[in-house]
From TrEMBL:
The lineage of its organism: Eukaryota, Metazoa, Ecdysozoa, Arthropoda, Chelicerata. InterPro entries: aa-tRNA-synth_II/BPL/LPL (IPR045864), BPL_LPL_catalytic (IPR004143), Octanoyltransferase (IPR000544), Octanoyltransferase_CS (IPR020605). GO terms for biological process: protein lipoylation. The active site is at 185 (acyl-thioester intermediate). This is Octanoyl-[acyl-carrier-protein]:protein N-octanoyltransferase LIPT2, mitochondrial. It catalyses: octanoyl-[ACP] + L-lysyl-[protein] = N(6)-octanoyl-L-lysyl-[protein] + holo-[ACP] + H(+). Keywords: Acyltransferase, Mitochondrion, Transferase. It is found in: Mitochondrion. Catalyzes the transfer of endogenously produced octanoic acid from octanoyl-acyl-carrier-protein onto the lipoyl domains of lipoate-dependent enzymes. Lipoyl-ACP can also act as a substrate although octanoyl-ACP is likely to be the physiological substrate. Residues 43-224 form the BPL/LPL catalytic domain.
Amino acid sequence: MGIEKLPVVIVHNLGKMCYRKAYDVQKDACQNILKYIASKDFESIQNYLFLVEHEPVYTVGIRNKQYVEGQDKLKNLGADFVVTDRGGLITFHGPGQLVSYPVLYLGHFNSKKSIKWYVRQLENTIIDTCRSFNVKATTTSDVGVWIEDRKIAAIGIHGSRYVTTHGIALNCNVDLNWFSHIVPCGIEGKEVTSLSKELQRDVTVTETIPHFLRSFQKYFACNYEYKDS
């Protein structure tokens, strides 16, 4: 019996990049995968994992009307404002936050191409990353990953023909004051936290990335290929 070949995920660390440019990078990768799906050349599909630290930006998902109308107030804070096609409501991305965009063909990772499975694996990846810092995180009935009633990571995804875009944002040493101007993900009465706040020391994105990559590889059973970006 042959050994099953693990899927390869190409890791691009984009460094610090504005949201709109990173969004275009995602869309290009997605179109590349969809091209091979259309020709039924599934073996030639390349899967991607983009890591990025954004300049300050508020993003909204599909249910966005109330936030679009109030965008000028948020822009006056010095942040960009972008409407996207992901699920979820409003959130913030900025320096000190590890944002990860897996652009994957689910058929390479799960025989049922299950979105529910995919979201659960993202949650597990974040929980395991936090565990590597001796921080106990969990899921609740509310979206995202939490430490008790404090949200440490947001999840917002989009799927088209079993190809994923958007992803997760883990707070490392982000300035949490940015979140005070919104109700993150539409969840009232809950705090936002970070690894730095929980550990009472500075935890950078650079320090967090190796832990995150190990956790992602653990839950998505893949090999990595690293690309300069």
